[in-house]
Write a structure and sequence with these properties.
The chain has helices at residues 2-6, 13-23, 26-36, 43-57, 71-83, 98-106, 120-123, 146-160, 162-169, 182-198; strands at 10-11, 63-64, 91-95, 108-111, 117-119, 138-140, 173-177. With 199 residues, it is an alpha/beta fold. Strands 5-4-6 form a three-stranded antiparallel β-sheet. The longest helix is centred in the C-terminal third of the chain and has 17 residues, at 182-198. The chain binds zinc ion (ZN). The site of zinc ion has 8 residues, from loops.
């Protein structure tokens, strides 16, 4: 949505890693194994992939979704950006309750054929959920199981939560209530980006 509205490239470690895994690179296969079990890929690998991506796509602005997730990642990002003579304008903190996370995850389906992701509610019209692109079966993602979620929530509390302070001290943190409708949340994010673009 951000790319469509502002022409700014967006990426996430997940997107980069899925691409590596689809391409069947050794790094991709190794990290797929880790994420299947709910673990986080090492900071060193994530940071290297992000730097490569930035050099290729980040020349006229960029947005990271779900990165950085740890303090060491945030510190590495700062030094990468220093090397590339650029800086962060905004850190947007989406505050989402545990219940919202559970509701959204339990409603998510993914195509076994092409990887297309949708929500169970938009696939409801069909008796058998079928991918609109390749007719593959839409199934619950395998990494969505309860145990994996528990691990993720724990990792969020111990590793990601400290980032709020980190970016607050840099005076670039903006908190947004992410429990609301997707369009309302996007409206708020757009407003922040517009303010920065015209400042
Ligand atoms: Zn498909």
């Amino acid at each position: 949505m951000i790319t469509r509205q502002f022409g700014i490239p967006v990426t996430s470690p997940g997107a980069i890693l899925r691409r590596e895994s689809d391409l069947g690179t050794p790094l991709g296969l190794e990290t797929a194994e880790t994420t299947q079990h709910g673990g986080l890929v090492s900071d060193k690998i994530i940071v290297q992939l992000i730097e490569d991506w930035l050099r290729l796509h980040g020349a006229s602005g960029f947005v990271f979704d779900g990165f950085p997730r740890t303090l060491p990642q945030a510190e590495s990002l700062l030094s990468i950006l220093k090397r590339l003579h650029t800086a962060l304008d905004l850190a947007i903190w989406l505050e989402v309750s545990e219940q919202t996370v559970r509701d959204r995850i339990s409603g998510r389906l993914q195509c076994g054929g092409c990887g297309f992701t949708t929500s169970a509610s938009s696939a409801k019209f069909a008796e058998r959920p079928i991918c609109p692109y390749c007719d593959g079966p839409l199934v619950r993602r395998t990494d969505d199981e309860a145990e994996v979620l528990q691990t993720r929530l724990q990792e969020f509390n111990t590793k990601t939560q400290p980032l709020a302070n980190f970016y607050e001290k840099m005076s670039i943190l903006h908190r947004i209530d992410g429990n609301r409708d997707r369009d309302v949340v996007f409206g708020d994010i757009s407003q922040l980006i517009e303010q920065k673009a015209t400042a």
